[in-house]
Amino acid sequence: MDGISDSHFLLQMVGENYPNGSISLIDQNLHFIYTNGSGFKKFGIDPSSFLRKSIFEVLQPEVYTPIKANLPKVLSGESVVHEVSTRNSHFLNAYKPIVNAEGKVEAFILTSQDITEFKRLEAEHVKLKNVIQKSINEIYIFDPETFKIEYVNDAGLKNLKYNFEEVKQKTIFDIKTNIKEETFKSWIKPVLDRQTETIVFETINKRSDGSFYPVEVHLQLVFHEGKSSIFTIVLDISNVKQYEMNIQEKKEELAATIEELNATTEELKEQNDQLLKLLEEKENLFKEIHHRIKNNLQMILSLLYIKSLNTKDPNLINFIQDTKNRILSISLLHEQLLKLKSINKLDINQYFSSLIQNIMASYKEPNKDYKLHFDVERFELSTDKIVYLGLITNEIISNIYKHAYPNQPNGDIFFKCLRNGSRCSFSIGDKGKGKLDFSKASKSYGTQLIQIFSDQLNARLTIDTTNGLFYIIEFEIE
């Protein structure tokens, strides 16, 4: 019994803290000699209650049935691995025979690893893969060095009129025949050098039958399992190009009509009405785009909300809440654009007043009261600047709620945005504990986002910890 004794001693050393599962020593009659591990806590079970008992007394049928079925293999000296499911959980069971000095198997070690989270992630991966495969947009993945095509989704195969095996033999230049290799390399160099995340350009794709169609390409660099690839979303813009041609034809017809009719007052008025109609169509098109973006963002917020209801992991809940607030800052911008005549500028006082109220409401605690000190001039900024400022505001205020006033019933949030000539001074902060470990903070996801968004504004970012913690961002308005 030396083999069992040695195994029992070793298992006792590691068993109590065996992570994410259990480890057991079971004799050939299927009685527990030893068992322990963190997995018992999940089901509220005392592992000592299993000792000297048969697996049939303490385990569920769906658990002991595969153990019994694999017993002949184990007793013959074979190591066995299989999956088992019980109580909405999934486990990976591994059997290791214990052989005595005579070469006889007298017991075996059973390790049971909880793979429930892995199975959930695996299912989500399959779902995401299916979404990409069935996307109405064409999606391509190709090698950044050889330009060999590695993946094309169903929409791409349908439009190109290739099957997957055929397209895998192609390079990107076989379908984008109008682009020379050196030219394409110069286009994607900023992405490969990580100077920019995405590039967008228009070109034409060649089908297998020799026909062509215009496309808009969104290209970025992705990494998976230590390998880099080029990921592209391709939009077929045939209808857009046809619309532009129709508009161009209308403009040419309009110019010819004006010239032929010698620009009389009545004729000019008629042509002016046509131009106003085109402008109205353009504005309506922008309104529709903002409306669709807002609806899509609201749908994503709803999905995140549903996800937050189905998890108890505080880190995942915090991540979902932060992500929801980032999306909310963008959604609010499109909502306000829908209400205005302007399509590229917003009043910052109105926008940030609504945004901060929404952020504070999302973090509201029953026994804690935060006071907002809001000092913002009324002037307009371009939407591309406001979207970065909105995301920065979200990151800083969420940090204030999480870190500025621990164990305090009240707290103050200071928000100021003033115009000084052609420059804007943007300040957010608190008068909380005021300490900031820059070596750690600079590596945090939120701080990196603040720095990235500040860089996008070409702004100067200053962090002041003299009296609390304040972020001061200064940039050119135009």
Automatic annotation (TrEMBL):
It is an enzyme of class 2 (transferase). Pfam families: HisKA_2 (PF07568), PAS_4 (PF08448), PAS_9 (PF13426). PROSITE patterns: PAS. InterPro entries: HATPase_C_sf, PAS, PAS-like_dom_sf, PAS_4, Sig_transdc_His_kin_sub2_dim/P. Its EC number is 2.7.13.3. It comes from the Bacteria. This is histidine kinase.
